[in-house]
Specification:
Length: 194
């Protein structure tokens, strides 16, 4: 009778240990799914099993794990459905930024050209009339010339910054276009989503 009782106790203990291991594995699966959602990583059974350190068989056999993955995939499908409408708006925002950057760049080029023309005119006047001007006038014109040169340097720096912003906006727009094409191809071919 004591061997039957100790055998029953061991069975109960083994079942409890198995339940604990199973719950820990389910917790790892759920944590992995949450991390994958945060990292925007594609959810597949194999990827979840690998990252959660469980077998694929465990995921397929365990109803809680299977439901968690099904829920994550359903959320992913819902997000993809929402993204179908969003890229146009998002793409429009990036296009607007690129157009604004191009407009600012054009204005900066125009201002720089105007300032260079003005500096040339003033330098010509200085050379033509230098003999007729007294020291005070020469100092004033030199100061104006210096301030105009500083303005040209500032506009050149602004121009460079706007060109960098425009390049960044164009790069982002190209990335968004590739991302949209990738999402559309995934939507069109559901076999690649698993």
């Amino acid at each position: 009778m004591s061997s039957v009782a100790s055998s029953g106790t061991r069975t109960v203990a083994a079942l409890a240990a198995r339940r604990e291991r199973s719950q820990a594995a389910i917790g790892r699966v759920q944590d992995t799914l949450a991390a994958m959602r945060r990292e925007n990583v594609r959810v597949t059974v194999a990827a979840v099993a690998r990252r959660a350190n469980v077998s694929r068989t465990f995921i397929y056999d365990n109803p809680q794990a299977r439901a968690a993955i099904a829920s994550a995939l359903a959320n992913l499908d819902q997000q993809r459905t929402q993204l179908r409408g969003a890229p146009d708006g998002q793409q429009a925002v990036w296009r607007e930024r690129a157009l604004n950057a191009e407009d600012a760049l054009t204005k900066a080029h125009t201002e720089i050209s105007r300032q260079r023309t003005r500096i040339g005119e003033l330098l010509g006047q200085v050379r033509d009339l230098q003999a007729e001007w007294d020291d005070e006038t020469t100092a004033r014109i030199t100061t104006e010339n210096t301030s105009l040169k500083q303005r040209v340097r500032q506009l050149t720096a602004d121009n460079r910054m706007l060109e960098e912003r425009l390049a960044a906006a164009r790069s982002t727009l190209r990335f968004q276009d590739r991302r949209i094409a990738d999402l559309e191809s995934r939507i069109a071919d559901p076999a690649t989503m698993t």
